[in-house]
Amino acid sequence: MNHLNHPAHPIARRWFLEQCGVGLGAIAVNQLLQESGYAAGSKAGAVQDPLAPHQPHHPPKAKNIIFLFMGGGPSHLELFDNKPVLGKFDGQLPPEDLLKGYRAAFINPNSKFLGPKFKFARHGECGAEVSEILPHLAKVVDDIAIVKSMKTDAFNHAPAQIQALTGSQLFGKPSLGAWTIYGLGSESKNLPGFVVFSSGNKGPSGGSSCWGSGFLPSTHQGVMFRGGQEPVLYLQNPPGVSAQLQRDSLDTLKALNQKHLDQVGDPEIATRINSFEMAYRMQSSAPDVMDLSQETRQTLDLYGAEPGKTSFANNCLLARRLVERGVRCVQLFHESWDQHGGLVSGLKSNCKATDQASAALIKDLKQRGLLQDTLVVWGGEFGRTPMVQGGNDGRDHHPNAFTMWLAGGGIKGGTTIGGSDDFGFNVIEDEVPVYDLHATILHLLGLNPDRLSFRFQGLDQKLIGVNPAKIVTKILA
After folding, report:
1. Who contacts 126 (Cβ-Cβ below 8 Å, separation ≥6)?
2. pLDDT tens profile 287-330
3. CB within 10 Å: which end of the chain, N or C, has fewer?
4. Where are the strands (E) in 258-413, listed by range?
5. Consecutive H or E run containing 339
6. Are 101 and 323 within 8 A, CB to CB?
7. How far apart are CA 241 and CA 137, in angstroms?
């Protein structure tokens, strides 16, 4: 017999840790689950809803967020950041000091300058400059804040998109939407708290990491919806499965999963229980929310939406319908902005597909009294080079300076901040790194970026990483 646990001796610390470690681990895990809202105590007899609304850290300015992500890198030089000086240097080589230490994705940095391809004009009472190929957005500039001084660390699509939406270029980190749901939960009982749509030529280069939950429990990840009456595949019952049979089956599965959860305390079991129940409720709620034929002809025309089709316009209208029903976060991807060549035709096509609906979303939310509670964000992973690629009709990836805009909950409309140099190459005023944008978004949603954390691999992980929270106060109302 081991002398450490002999009845004649008191219990030794070494024996206790060696023999009882598993039990202590289970106790600790169960406690963490209860604190995080993933498991009720055994007396409760049922798992709590991990998506139940949580109290924010401070009074929020926005309750929901709609992120219009323009995958591929929209050219700030043709859309928002007017550079007449760049036009004067069209066809000339850039100065050597401008390119010191610069890494381009594909082109030789010594490529010649390419002047802007479209005209700009001032609009609204604020006098914001907007490109001629954004005529609809030009009508709502007094409701948006334009940030011309965005900067990121990555110059290739996948890592830049992942950084733009998770705060890190590395795979495996939770997305902005997942952090939002983790911090706030969702007010919708019959729909996911985080919904994702995709339009354009292809999906985002960063893949599902752009809406994944990373090391957070998977219940916080985004749910991809498709167009049409079946937003999620296999949501409806197969032939021969009645509603009663389904309900009985789900109740049995729930009891078995609950028993397993009580034994091992794995949060993924709680996710499984809730995903089954959510899918059951979505069988009626999802087709209803996706039915755009319920909208008036006036609303459909405002967006340029067509029921039964898949388009960015339809997705914008669906985003409004979702936030009306309590969905916390909606993320729309439109991956078509990578104009290494065909810049003029490509930008015209992209703007035709997205400009009207983006502006309509702001108008529609505003007239329904939803804009004050809904934060709308528009932007991509980086901008485009002032140097030419593809003959005289293309631009390369450019992380040093690009533009995004925000509207709605807590944003000061009619504001333009930041600036880049005469060539749109480097930020020279009010630099806004991606993590500062994330900090500002969390702040508007009522979350403290420094406090919103999750213990993983021995570290208190955060969306903003190790960067101190810096709120972009100039765009706040």
Report:
1. 141, 142, 413, 414, 415, 416
2. 788 899 999 999 999 999 999 888 999 999 999 999 999 999 99
3. N
4. 329-335, 374-379, 383-388, 395-398, 402-408
5. none
6. no
7. 49
Nearest to 72 by CA among 395, 475, 461, 435: 395
| pTM score of the predicted model | 0.85
d(CA 65, CA 443): 12
Token duo for residue 190: 């019959």
CATH topology of domain 64-232+306-475: Alkaline Phosphatase, subunit A (3.40.720)
* Dist. CA 74–CA 258, nearest whole Å: 48
Residues 6 or more apart whose CB falls under 8 angstroms from that of 288 comprise: none
Where residue 247 falls among pLDDT bands split at 50, 70, 90? Answer: low
Nearest alpha carbon to residue 102 among 155, 148, 149 = 155
DSSP 410: T
DSSP state of 409: T
pLDDT digits (tens, 9 = 90+) for 419-457: 999 999 999 999 999 999 999 999 999 999 999 999 999
